[in-house]
């Protein structure tokens, strides 16, 4: 296979093909919950929901950054260059942001305003 954009996209598609349907279902459910959040925003404590989603995303991001080397069959001791550390940190940030975004609607619906 050539090193071209289409070649790279076909490899990425093959990698993600098994999880595309479950991922689409999770995203659709999350969008439905987010629509419910938007309808009920007057009854919800938005600041508390955002803080909880940020906290969960941060915890999952740090855990992911620590776990990624083991997931690839290496260890933290085998990270040798700045690029290795940037990749691990970037992966942790990406997973943390994704988890925070996906967790926001259900967490927000759990937090009501106190009158």
Please give a structural write-up.
By secondary structure, the chain is mainly alpha-helical. The protein has one domain. It has three helices and no strands. Helix 2 packs antiparallel against helix 3. The longest helix is centred in the first third of the chain and has 35 residues. The radius of gyration is 18 Å and the shape is flat.
Which terms summarize this structure?
115 residues
Indicate the topology.
Blueprint: H1 5-39, H2 46-71, H3 82-110
Helix pairs in contact: 1-3, 2-3
Give a quick precis of the structure.
With 115 residues, the protein is mainly alpha-helical.
Helical segment count: 3
Q: Largest sheet, described in full?
A: none
Q: Looking at the structure, what is the overall shape?
A: flat
Computed CA radius of gyration, to the nearest angstrom? 18 Å
The oligomeric state is single chain
Mean pLDDT: 88
Number of strands: 0
Count of the domains = 1
> Roughly what fraction of the amino acids lie in strands?
under 5%
Low-confidence stretches: none
Helix/strand order: HHH
């Amino acid at each position: 296979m050539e090193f071209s954009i289409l070649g790279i996209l076909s490899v990425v598609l093959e990698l993600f093909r098994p999880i595309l349907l479950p991922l689409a279902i999770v995203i659709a459910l999350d969008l439905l919950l987010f629509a419910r959040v938007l309808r009920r925003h007057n009854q919800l404590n938005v600041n508390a929901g955002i803080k909880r989603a940020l906290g969960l995303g941060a915890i999952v991001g740090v855990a992911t950054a620590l776990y990624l080397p083991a997931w690839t069959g290496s260890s933290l001791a085998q990270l040798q260059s700045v690029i290795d550390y940037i990749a691990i940190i970037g992966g942790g940030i990406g997973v943390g942001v994704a988890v925070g975004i996906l967790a926001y609607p259900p967490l927000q619906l759990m937090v009501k305003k106190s009158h």
